[in-house]
Amino acid sequence: MARAGHLTGARRRVAGLTLLALIPVGFLAVFFAWPVVAIVGLGFSSGGVTETLMETQTWELAGFTLAQAAASTAVAVMAGMPVAFLLARVRLRGVAAVRTLILIPFVLPTVVVGLAFRALLPEGGVLSIVLANAFFNVAVVARTVAGLWAHTDRRIEDAARALGASPWRAFRTVTLPALAPAITSSAAVVFLFSATSFGVVLMLGGSRYRTLETEIYLRTVNLLDLSGAAALSLVQFAAVVAALVLGAMARRRRESAVRLRARVETARRPEGAERWAAGAAAVVLVLLLTPIVALLLRSVSGPGGWSLDGYRALAGTGENGALAVSGWDAALNSLRTASDATMLAMTVGLLACVVLVSLRRTPDRAARAAGETLDAALMLPLGVSAVTVGFGYLITLDALPGDLRTSPLLVPFAQALVIIPLIVRMVLPVLRSVDERLRQAATTLGARPLRVWREIDLPLTARSVVAAAAFGYVVALGEFGATSFLARPDAPTLPVAVATLISRPGPLNNQMAYAACAMLMVVTALVVAVIDRLRAGSTVGEF
Fold it and tell me: Membrane-spanning regions, if any (predicted)?
């Protein structure tokens, strides 16, 4: 009887989790799967998909996309490793500031980074694209690898050194294999972000250098070649799925590695051969600051020398009425849409985290497999063309009550789709790290699942939840891909306004664009500092 009651209780929990999972699953189905399937289906129905896949240009675009993504990943890994060592193994003043500094590029709007590298390398080209994508993603490598490196037992490395191994050989044969799960996981994420980069390639590549993402935009918006855009979306989707599978496998290995290794006084002042890593990290930090400084200087310079005209001009619509609204109105639009997107994403993301953690604990194999499938599905929006999703919204959402195509919520829905995976990746590992015995004790004392969540899980994960909300907010604030396609001309966000200004002639428009970018960068830096203060001392789930 007791066993039958236990099985009945387990089945009820699975049934309850299934109902709870309908919210994130339903959101993905309506606001991601439906638009994407619709746009791809429309492309197939119009014919020409097979012809596009057979064209040499298609595979040249795919080759360039993968090549620049691979090069960006290699640069980001090489630059991120010394910084990871600094964060994990060195106790010096200012390391906390370094942790904050390296995260700023990752959450900067793509238009900000594009303009920063245009100010630094006016000619643009492949080198600018690779460096800009690497600039974005150094934090992914540094913070992911540092999170595992800080937990590795360095006594094994010291033993190798005592047996006569050189510092390089000890690192190569002992430390590097231990860090491999984190390196592979972060490299897969960097590759994914670089392969689907839109704003950077659009601003730095011009008409000469195009990736699958920018070509999908060109064919959809300018040429109305839906069959060609659909074919390119399929190629891009295949590459994204491969990167996600690799990243998921590496992430599971990294989580296991963190649990199995004890943290043994890893932080100390650099000695001997270790100083080269600290020196290399210092060089990387200087290089990360260079585009930021170049952008700030460009925002206060004009044809006649130093000037604040760009900042003052934000109260207007730019030279020759470049904008439909003032720069400050665009900034307010950004704040409103980012707030709406963050609230929506937090609701869906937290529910998804609760479901994923609960399904992982259930003895039902089918339920655990469903949880792993949902976990992977939540990451897919990061790798599908924002143009595909945006155009899909315009041809599908009229079927919903109220016709969301004309609703001010359209942009927040698209932005939420982008930040939900990031929120899940920040909160889920922390939620999984909560000692299961605490939950079991509360359940034994009669607490229902909702009370267990309120009394146990929420207090232990509150700081990470708040940090995830802040992180999602700054990402939504600077989102450009889907927003550029969906925002109405009379209600642009600040990144869309920047792109409009930079495309219009006139020195004042350029100054306004750089001034707006500087404002976005300052806001981003302040929010990132708050995030790191909230997450101080935590390495679980960090990137």
Answer: 20-44, 64-88, 100-120, 126-146, 178-206, 226-250, 276-297, 341-359, 379-397, 409-431, 464-487, 512-531
Rounded (10°) CA dihedral 20, 479, 423, 522: -140
Question: What residue segments make up the domains of the chain, in order of their start?
Answer: 55-265+275-294
**Cβ-proximal residues to 236 (8 Å cutoff; 6+ apart), any chain:** 65, 195, 196, 212, 213, 216, 383, 384, 385
Beta bridge partners of 305: 302
pLDDT of residue 439: 67
Helix, strand, or coil (residue 247):
helix
Q: What is the mean pLDDT of each run of 10 residues along the chain (543 residues)?
A: 49 69 88 85 70 78 88 92 81 71 78 80 83 88 80 70 70 77 81 82 81 81 74 75 67 52 45 62 82 84 82 87 88 90 92 82 74 81 75 77 74 90 81 69 67 70 80 84 81 87 84 86 78 57 48
pTM (predicted TM-score): 0.77
For residue 485, what are the contacts with CB-CB under 8 A and spacing of at least 6? 217, 221, 386, 387, 390, 391
**Spatial separation of the C-alpha atoms in residues 468 and 423, rounded to whole Å:** 5
Q: How many residues does the chain have?
A: 543
- Cα–Cα distance between 35 and 50 in angstroms, integer? 21
Give me the residue label for tokens 């953690």. Answer: 357
CB 417 within 8 A of CB 379: no
Cβ-contact 117, 155 below 8 angstroms: no
Q: Where are the alpha helices (DSSP H) in 435-506?
A: 436-444, 449-452, 458-478, 481-486, 494-503
pLDDT of residue 274: 58
Whether residue 203 contacts residue 114, with contact meaning beta carbons closer than 8 Å, is answered with yes
- Superfamily for domain range 55-265+275-294: MetI-like (1.10.3720.10)
Question: Which pLDDT belongs to residue 77?
Answer: 92
CA 59 to mean position of chain CA atoms: 26
Spatial distance between the Cα atoms of 287 and 281, rounded to a whole number of angstroms: 10
Q: What is the 3-state secondary structure (H, E, C) of 191-230?
A: HHHHHCCCHHHHHHHCCCCCCHHHHHHHHHHHCCCHHHHH
Q: What angle do CA 154, 141, 175 make, to 5 degrees?
A: 20
Contact assessment for residue 427 and residue 542, using Cβ atoms and an 8 Å cutoff = no
For tokens 């990144």, the residue is 495
